[in-house]
């Protein structure tokens, strides 16, 4: 068996040196992050890792670990109602703004893909996405036993048009949605592709990233993610991320990218219809910035369907869509200003 690792190199000399190393095989290079993906056979692991870690041209080495969607157990009752839209007073916001968003605001849903043919999503879909799970330019949401249509559901929470009979409406019905797929039909994807997805979004000029996924790993293992988010920060991109569904306090529990701690990050817990915290939602006074409706959320599913899902995964795109709506009113607001605005104006509740 073999293991994949991400190596952050300082210069091309390291790449040239390791390309001839018999203990490992270079599988891929990602120049924005100065990352080299290497495959190391189990029999050579110790020698190869010693070579890498001790080399002065190498910053760090981390496993190419798996990231997973952050959905709570599926709610079997799918009522045709959207309590979350009413709870956050979306209609009042649209009236005060005089609009329901803008197609000029591009939001990247980095997830399992999006069913861009769904009637409630197609008018707001941007064709410039990519699929890193299959390495092609078709980020269609492929369902499986572990993926009921996670990315499509998130996209609908952001920008379902509200123009389809018996359908749903997103928090920003006027918006442009880009699907960047790196999570597969099992709801998981590796670190390397997660980093590439973030850099792709930056390259395409998105304003907001919605990231409803993560992994319970250490800060040092998560460095490639943190550095990618920092590149997004420098590009002015708001990074909205799920706090996770372990029912734990993120102030003392390590989960990434939720705990990245970069100024453009908005980490989101879930709330229910009575403003309470579902038992499964993570929380944290210092590491989690706000809570958003995430329990029994009605939204779009692949193949022209709708249904309820729960999780901080569902709370996250509602905030991402709200950020898009705010950006439509004032595109010059910084990520820090937007996060402060949401915290200052949100309802104050106990947990």
Give a brief rundown of this model.
This protein is an alpha/beta fold.
Structure description:
- The chain contains nine helices and 16 strands.
- A seven-stranded parallel β-sheet has the order 7-8-6-10-12-13-14, with helices on both faces.
- Strand 7, helix 5 and strand 8 form a beta-alpha-beta unit.
- The chain is α/β, with parallel strands linked by helices.
- It is globular and about 65 Å long.
- Helix 5 packs parallel to helix 8 and helix 6 packs parallel to helix 7.
- The relative contact order is 0.16.
- Helices cover 27% and strands 26% of the residues.
- The longest helix is centred in the last third of the chain and has 18 residues.
Furnish the topology, listing elements before pairings.
Layout lengths: L1 E8 L2 H8 L5 E6 L4 E7 L3 H9 L4 E6 L2 E4 L13 H5 L2 H8 L3 E11 L13 E7 L18 H10 L14 E8 L6 E3 H13 L4 E4 L1 E2 L8 H12 L3 E5 L22 E7 L18 E4 L3 E5 L3 E5 L2 H18 L5 H11 L6
Parallel strand pairs: 6-8, 6-10, 7-8, 10-12, 12-13, 13-14
Antiparallel strand pairs: 1-3, 1-4, 2-3, 5-9, 5-11, 15-16
Helix pairs in contact: 5-8, 6-7
Q: What attributes characterize this protein structure?
A:
7-stranded parallel beta sheet; 9 helices; alpha/beta
Query: What's the shape?
Result: globular
User: What is the typical, i.e. mean, pLDDT?
Assistant: 93
Helical content (DSSP H or I, runs of 4+): 25-40%
Distance between the termini: 46 Å
Treating each run of at least 4 consecutive H or I residues as one helix, how many helices? 9
Strand order of the largest sheet: 7-8-6-10-12-13-14
Secondary-structure-based class equals alpha/beta
Radius of gyration from the CA trace? 20 Å
Per DSSP E runs of 2 or more residues, the count of β-strands stands at: 16
């Amino acid at each position: 068996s073999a293991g994949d690792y991400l190596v952050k190199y300082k210069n091309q000399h390291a790449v040239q040196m390791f390309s001839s190393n018999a203990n490992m095989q270079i599988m891929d290079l990602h120049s924005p992050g100065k990352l080299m993906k290497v495959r190391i056979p189990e029999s050579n692991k110790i020698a190869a890792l010693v070579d890498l870690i001790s080399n002065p041209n190498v910053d760090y080495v981390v496993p190419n670990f798996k990231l997973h969607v952050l959905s709570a157990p599926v709610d079997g009752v799918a009522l045709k109602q959207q309590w979350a839209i009413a709870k956050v007073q979306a209609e009042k916001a649209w009236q005060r703004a005089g609009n329901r968003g803008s197609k000029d605001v591009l939001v990247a849903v980095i997830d399992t893909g999006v069913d861009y043919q769904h009637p409630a999503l197609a008018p707001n879909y941007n064709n410039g996405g990519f699929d890193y799970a299959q390495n092609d330019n078709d980020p269609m949401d492929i369902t499986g036993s572990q993926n009921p249509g996670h990315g499509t559901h998130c996209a609908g929470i952001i920008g379902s048009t509200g123009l389809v009979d018996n359908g749903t409406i997103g928090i920003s019905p006027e918006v442009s949605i880009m699907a960047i797929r790196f999570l597969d039909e099992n709801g998981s994807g590796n670190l390397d592709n997660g980093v590439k997805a973030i850099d792709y979004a930056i390259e395409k000029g998105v304003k907001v990233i919605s990231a409803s996924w993560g992994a319970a790993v250490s800060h040092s293992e998560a460095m490639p993610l943190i550095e990618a988010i920092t590149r997004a920060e420098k590009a002015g991109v708001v990074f909205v991320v799920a706090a996770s569904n372990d029912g734990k306090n993120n102030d003392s529990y390590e989960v990434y990218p939720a705990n990245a701690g970069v100024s453009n990050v908005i980490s989101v817990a879930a709330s229910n219809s009575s403003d309470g915290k579902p038992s499964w939602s993570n929380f944290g006074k210092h590491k989690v910035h706000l809570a958003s409706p995430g329990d029994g959320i009605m939204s779009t599913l692949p193949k022209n369907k709708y249904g309820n899902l729960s999780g901080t995964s569902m709370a996250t795109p509602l905030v991402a869509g709200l950020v898009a709506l705010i950006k439509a009113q004032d595109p010059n607001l910084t990520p820090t200003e937007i996060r402060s605005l949401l915290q200052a104006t949100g309802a104050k509740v106990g947990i």
